[in-house]
Fold each of these.
Amino acid sequence: MSGDIGSPQGNTVKEVIELTDATIQELAASMQSGAKTSKGLVEDFRQVIASDDGSFNAVAFLNPDAEAIADALDRERADGRVRGPLHGVPILVKDNLNTGDTMMTSAGSLALDGSIAPTDSHVVTRLRNAGAVVLGKTNLSEWANFRSTRSASGWSSRGGQVRNAYALDRSPGGSSSGSAVATARGYCAGAVGTETDGSIVSPAAMNAVVGIKPTVGLVSRSGIIPIASSQDTAGPMARTVADAACILSAIAGSDPVDPATAGADARAAMDYTAFLDPDTLRGAPIGVVRNYAGFHEKVDAVFDDALRALKDAGAKLTDGLSLAPPAELRPHERIVLLTEFKFGLNAYLASLGPEAPISTLADLIAFNDAHAGRVMPHFGQETLIMAEATDGLQDKNYLDAVAACHRLTREDGIDRIMQENDLQALIAPTTGAASAIDWVNGDHGLGGSACLAAVAGYASVTVPMGHVSGLPVGISFFAGPWSEGTLIGLAHAFEKIVQARIVPGPPKNFLP
């Protein structure tokens, strides 16, 4: 981005367009110099959204209080109080994170249309305390892609279809679809998504942005509409690893309401940007998980180019490694997700109080049946029905499935392979290039590696690694628990060498 963002002459079209590649550091510097204000940035990003998002549908709704919040933060800066690098920086959050303001929290469901949360989620509280301006909320796959086995990523009954930042007829990935597309197209400085299995890293990869899926327990889940407590986490999505690290620094930490985060303060880095060393790859032992590649020859070609770049940077690669394939993991994971979803959603709905439009998963299923023409015009709710039929967290089938998931991905999986080969991290293609949006058959991606870290509850970072026929593909760095700092350093060094992200162009279809 050029210095034009710092111009005090008003919001020219050129200035606004350049926000599509602005970094958090550059935005902060422009405010610190007095060339820009937070209120001015809010107006600029809104202008980009107004002029562009009609084609992409990434933003669910804007925060009507954003300008007033930005104005107050500008006054703080003028008085010499700067909370940190996010002070005055506009951030979007996924529409499954509670905000205790006038914005609804709907998970993309018409059943929660208009539902106002009583308080902020812990993540939103930490963003606000860090000085970020919550600019609005992003569209998502309904119920975070946990409604139907035929669901199309990025579609919801309340929000409609999000479209890929590079091709309108291609999937944006899910379920943090809007957060990825909004980040890619410059509607915000960065965004927050959530992941249970692939919902941060897959859309990030398909839209050529960086996504960090933290260790489960590093970032609080309180006030976030859940799928599964053993795998759910929120995480940052940004145009650079440095920006994602900055956002992670703000949202990581313990929360007494979420017991899984009890050790987060002791484990979290105060500042994840301290790991941004471009020389990190030199001598770094990294394992190549080959059985999570091989699903598309063009993705393999880009991946092989990435491996050569890693070697040239001094990384010591151990190739040909293999971990439990998805077909072995999925049956166990499915039982875990279905069982935990029923328990978690019922608890979340109860937390909304008597004013909640629905109170239980059973209510949700009944609502969808009663409004099937609007809610289910393309695909059904068989996943919700299967979840309702589960028998609770003490059920032996569930407990056995949890144990199998952990054995396959932890002790016999990531932990074992890293210890045996003395590795800092593992790598594999994040996912394939975006497939066509298909409301009849649903998503039909060919492969990806998100399930390994997701099922284990471990950390992963995806970074753009190249393009297949103009569609972005990413590479994932993943390792054991609390490895975010190491992964951020490796991913940042790779990003600097490869520089694979290309700013998306005007709206167009992939096929004529």
Amino acid sequence: MPFIRTTTNVSVSDSAAEKIRQQLGQAIRLIPGKSEQWLMLAMEGDKKMYFAGSDEPLAMAEVSLYGSASGDCYNKLTGKITEILSDVLSIPANRIYVRYAETEYWGWNGENF
């Protein structure tokens, strides 16, 4: 039940979005018990965004997770998400933020887990 929303100020072509989808589908396994089977993704490109007063290429990845994981797992996932966005979208690693939100309630199919 993870959800990853990636927002960036660069264009995201269909082929880039597909590469990111595939790679995030693999990367989510860094969180125990999570897989692409339950992963939902949203990719938003060409947004007006600024970081440190500049509109140079940047991205924000927001990871919502049912339950929790260890700091070590999050650290590994942050590294992988950063690597993916840097490689596919040519965004410098120091201009990518990753935020995590854990929740104990997650609804699906008309009810909560």
